């Protein structure tokens, strides 16, 4: 299109210069060179430069978009590696990284929907963790998805203990997501700052997995037991990925005790 425009413009100028005698042609040429030709050439060059700049900007924009996509992919891969990095001993149990794709339940007590299920060999009651501690357990499964009951849900209960003294208790949470270690005898050796971990009596997790730390001791004259408020290491609502342990606790003692 630009070439056709240039040709037509040059043809008109040539025809204009051709008219008249030699003296007239020289005068017209001198006039055109000063008033039209030089500004015109400058304008055409500037126009060409603008077109080239536009094309270059388009190419650069496409390259920038591709680099942005690649950078985002690299950030996601880096985050996935970070999420898959467990900061405590898992006894080398096999585990699978899963994405949280939705929530199920009321706002205060939402369960997590993840993109792993029966096709990934997930089973009921498999423990779920993140890099800093426990998250919850599998409570429902379909072919490609599962539901995780998080540790801050009021239905979640777990055998726990103090990592320092091995004092045993049961972890429970209220409808607001506040977690507590309960069934603690008054006078027991427990204090603010103690780390709480899963205990041997946990029906889901192996022993020693981190849960949180004690931030408050609660005693009431009308209660037989005291409790300890726990600040959990994991806030399930802040996760986008989690780790499923392919772990089933050996509960053969239950069958054995049935016969006694």
Describe the model.
- The protein is rod-shaped, with a radius of gyration of 37 Å.
- Helices cover 33% and strands 28% of the residues.
- Strands 1-2-5-4-3-12 form a 6-stranded antiparallel β-barrel. The chain has a 6-stranded antiparallel β-barrel with strand order 6-7-8-11-10-9.
- The protein starts with a helix and ends with a helix.
- The model has no long low-confidence stretch (mean pLDDT 83).
- It has 3 domains: 81 residues; 56 residues, Thrombin, subunit H (Beta Barrel); 80 residues, Rod shape-determining protein MreC, domain 2 (Thrombin, subunit H).
- By secondary structure, the chain is an alpha+beta fold.
- It contains 3 helices and 12 strands.
Q: Please state how the strands of the largest beta sheet are arranged side by side.
A: 1-2-5-4-3-12
General shape: rod-shaped
Strand runs, count: 12
Mean pLDDT: 83
Question: What oligomeric assembly is this protein in?
Answer: single chain
- Integer tally of domains: 3
- Biggest sheet: strands, sense, closure? 6 strands, antiparallel, barrel
Which structural class should the secondary elements be placed in?
Answer: alpha+beta
User: Considering DSSP H and I runs of 4 or more, what fraction of the residues is helical?
Assistant: 25-40%
| Number of helices, where a helix is a run of at least 4 consecutive DSSP H or I residues | 3
Radius of gyration: 37 Å
Report the portion of residues in β strands.
Answer: 25-35%
Element pattern in H and E:
HHEEEEEEEEEEEEH
